[in-house]
Amino acid sequence: QVQLMESGGGSVQAGGSLRLSCTVSGYPLGKYRMGWFRQAPGMEREGVAWIGRDGSPTYADSVKGRFTGSQDNAKNTLYLQMNSLKPEDTARYYCAASLYSITYNTWGQGTQVTVSS
C-alpha cells in the first residue's frame, strides 16, 4: 500500500525558513513522479514543485529561488526547503505521487505552514 506522510510544517515570521519532509512507503522514490502542492483557505490547490523520476525539480514562478526540492533515496523521503518565506506562502502543503497516471493521484494528509508578517 502506497502512503505519503508530510511533516515539518509550523508557524514562522516572514523571512524565516522551514523544511518539509514527505516520507514515502510502499514504493521506492524514483519510480514515479512526485510533486509538492499547497492550498490556502478559499483558494485552489496549486503546484509548488514537481520532481521528476530522476529527482530533478521544477518550480512554480512564485517560489523559484526561495524553495528547493531534494530527496534522500536511502530514507525514501522527499524534502522541500523553504527560505525567505512570505505571508502569501501560508497554506497547507501536500506531497503527491503520480502512480500509473498522468495526474497526481496519491496524496498525503498535508502539513500546515503559517507565515506571519
The averaged pLDDT comes out at 95
β-strand amount: over 45%
Q: Helical residue percent?
A: under 10%
Computed CA radius of gyration, to the nearest angstrom: 13 Å
Shape: globular
Distance between the termini: 41 Å
What letter string, H or E per element, gives the SSE order?
Answer: EEEEEEEEEEE
How is this structure best described in words?
This protein is globular. It is built from no helices and eleven strands. It is 0% helix and 52% strand. The model has no long low-confidence stretch (mean pLDDT 95). The chain is mainly β and 117 residues long. β7 (67-72) and β8 form a beta hairpin. The strands form two sheets. Strands 2, 4, 5, 6, 9, 10 and 11 form a seven-stranded mixed beta sheet that branches.
Give a brief outline of the structure.
The chain is mostly beta strands. Helix content is 0%, strand content 52%.
Structural topology:
Layout: E1 3-7, E2 10-13, E3 18-25, E4 33-39, E5 46-51, E6 57-59, E7 67-72, E8 77-82, E9 91-98, E10 106-107, E11 111-116
Parallel strand pairs: 2-11
Antiparallel strand pairs: 1-3, 3-8, 4-5, 4-9, 5-6, 7-8, 9-10, 9-11
List keywords for this structure.
mainly beta; single chain; globular; four-stranded antiparallel beta sheet; 117 residues; seven-stranded mixed beta sheet
